[in-house]
Amino acid sequence: MNATPNADGRRALLLAGSPKGLKGTSYELGRFLLGRLEEGGYSTETLAASAAVRSGEASAVLLEAIQDADLVVVSFPLYVDQLPAPLVAALEVIAGHRRLLPSRKPAKIAAIVQCGFPESLQNLPAVEIMQQFAKEAGFSWAGALYMGMGGALGGRPLEKAGGMARNAVKALDRAAASLLQGRDIPAEASTLMARPLVPKWLYRFMANWGMKQEAKKHGAKKTVLARPYESAVPGARD
Questions:
Q1: Rounded-to-integer distance, Cα 98 and Cα 220, Å
Q2: What is the mean pLDDT of residues 186-200?
Q3: Does the structure show a pLDDT above 60 at 84?
Q4: I need a labelling partner for 174 at 20 to 30 A (CA). Which of 19, 37, 186, 217 fits?
Q5: Distance CA 142, CA 109 (A)
């Protein structure tokens, strides 16, 4: 858990939804946004969803942070068109608690979603899930940023990612500026974040190259396209 005090009085919580915890691309995107909010007067706190659901004590810390927050930012990677399991568990804990004990303040919630697919639109079902969660858990929905090609960033801080991250930086800056003024994430910020980090052909080439290197590393280069169970499938070719 990381916490930064500030005299402004407004509090923002980053809930890092990746099973990796406080590292990786999703965390770095959320960290960057939180930094901008902190510069604008928010006090900030960061919790990992994977750690927050491991014990009753950790869950209590999460729920207290949620109760105190004016803004919750949930940043996570897409897992097969869904939210990662540890994040789902954390959100279920939050929703159950808020049904029993209404928040002490009207909190907003926003989402940042990134995936390894080239197309940023792959994230939209997860965005809709988060929007529905906000409704059912009593949050005010503040919008979302979503990005494809997250693998190109490789978990690096945006400050070290070079030109490929320029649109993401602009998007996060505009989102922060709007949130600091009490507004939601603007559509122009979401559009910027959704732009490809690199040309699609280059991303696919690098992804395929990386897969081949992993196959070679694990001694599976010659068998990576094997279909050992194909003959067992009814109707499969002999």
A1: 49
A2: 95
A3: yes
A4: 19
A5: 6
